[in-house]
Specification:
It is a single chain. The protein has 2 domains: 13-94 and 183-249, HAD superfamily/HAD-like (Rossmann fold, 3-Layer(aba) Sandwich); 96-179, Hypothetical Protein, Haloacid Dehalogenase-like Hydrolase, Chain: A, domain 2. 36% of the residues lie in helices and 23% in strands. The chain contains 11 helices and 11 strands. The strands form 2 sheets. The protein has a 7-stranded mixed β-sheet with strand order 5-4-3-2-1-10-11. Strands 6-7-9-8 form a 4-stranded antiparallel β-sheet. Its main location: cytoplasm. It is found in: Cytoplasm. Pathway: Nucleotide-sugar biosynthesis; GDP-alpha-D-mannose biosynthesis; alpha-D-mannose 1-phosphate from D-fructose 6-phosphate: step 2/2. Homodimer.
Length: 250
């Protein structure tokens, strides 16, 4: 790995990176990492570099992983990496409005609001969040049963075909809309410059249409599908906690 004066003391090997989807560390509602997970991540970080990538903004990541997450992780990628922290420092910021332009965003927002106004479900269940990367629509358990977000995504794909937008269903209650290429693979453009021999990715929405799919199948990563934080811990221990493997990666 390239020399860097901000590499944290006591951090793990330079040859492997464990990059996890946010929900692979929290998953169960309420979406917060447990003390056991925090302890595990501290131990893991002594063996390999550790990062988290999520479609949510930084405030949501802090809510789930703690206000000190930037210093507890080697990499923190909010909004799929459009807001990127590397070794405790802000690395880069990208902006969806400047990239797509006001007209496309305004048309999209207006269409979403009009579509939602015609759905006969409690309107208190909806939030439209305008971030630098994503316009996310959140649904309660009732809406998940009605497959509202799946239907909504299908309509949006048809309405905005050719506009340079991609859609993915992420987490337990949302879907993301972002410029083509701004899925979670965006963060790989940052970490690959640090010359890791292996980048392991852990995610739960790894099927086509899920917001982990693109990075999961990317040739730059070794993808691991997980269903719970316990899955993530188990696989990491198999990969990185063996004394034989540890000698190989250091």
């Amino acid at each position: 790995m390239k020399n860097n004066p901000r590499q944290p003391k006591g951090s793990g090997c330079r040859l492997a990176l464990a990059l996890s989807d946010l929900h692979s560390q929290t998953l169960a509602l309420p979406l917060k990492a447990t003390p056991d997970m925090h302890q595990f991540l501290n131990e893991l970080r002594q063996r390999v570099r550790v990062g988290v990538v999520g479609g949510s903004d930084l405030d949501k990541i802090k809510e789930q992983l703690g206000d000190d997450v930037i210093n507890r992780m080697d990499y923190v990628f909010a909004e799929n990496g459009l807001v990127a922290y590397r070794f405790g420092q802000l690395h880069s910021v990208q902006n969806i409005q400047a990239y797509l332009g006001e007209e496309v965003l305004q048309d999209f927002i207006n269409f979403c609001l009009n579509y939602l106004s015609k759905i006969k479900l409690p309107k208190k269940s909806f939030f439209l969040i305008y971030q630098k990367i994503t316009l996310s629509d959140f649904f309660n358990v009732l809406m998940q049963k009605e497959k509202i977000r799946e239907k909504f995504v299908s309509v949006l794909k048809e309405e905005f075909a050719g506009k340079g937008l991609a859609f993915s269903i992420g987490g337990q209650i949302s879907f993301d809309v972002f410029p083509v290429g701004w899925d979670k693979r965006y963060c790989l453009g940052i970490v690959e410059k640090d010359s890791y021999q292996r980048i392991h990715f852990f995610g739960d929405k790894t099927m086509p249409g899920g917001n982990d799919y693109e990075i999961f199948v990317d040739p730059r990563t070794i993808g691991h599908e997980v269903k719970s934080p316990e899955d993530t811990q188990r696989i990491c221990k198999e990969l990185f906690f063996s004394s034989v493997i540890q000698k190989e990666v250091q």
